[in-house]
Design a protein that fits this description.
mainly alpha; 80 residues; globular; 5% strand; two-stranded antiparallel sheet
Length: 80
């Protein structure tokens, strides 16, 4: 296995761990994130298993999109 593949795998694992571990911090700073376009449009590089929200594909979501989803659909909360 070459170094590029290993580093790509490591980066994916890092992203998959960082986002869920910091979800409450992100949520608690929603106002700040939603009002700053750089933070709102920050990519969240994880693969989610949510296919559709209101018949709209949910892929390549940004930090702001996740916040809007959490605020609009609180019943989907899963606290890990």
């Amino acid at each position: 296995m070459d170094i590029k593949k290993i580093s790509d795998k490591a980066e994916k694992k890092l992203h998959h761990r960082l986002f869920p571990e910091n979800a409450w911090t992100i949520f608690n700073n929603a106002d700040k994130i939603l009002n700053d376009p750089r933070m709102f449009f920050a990519p969240v590089n994880i693969r989610n298993v949510v296919a559709y929200i209101d018949d709209v594909p949910f892929e390549k979501a940004t930090l702001g999109i996740y916040l809007e989803w959490w605020m609009k659909y609180p019943e989907t909360e899963i606290d890990i």
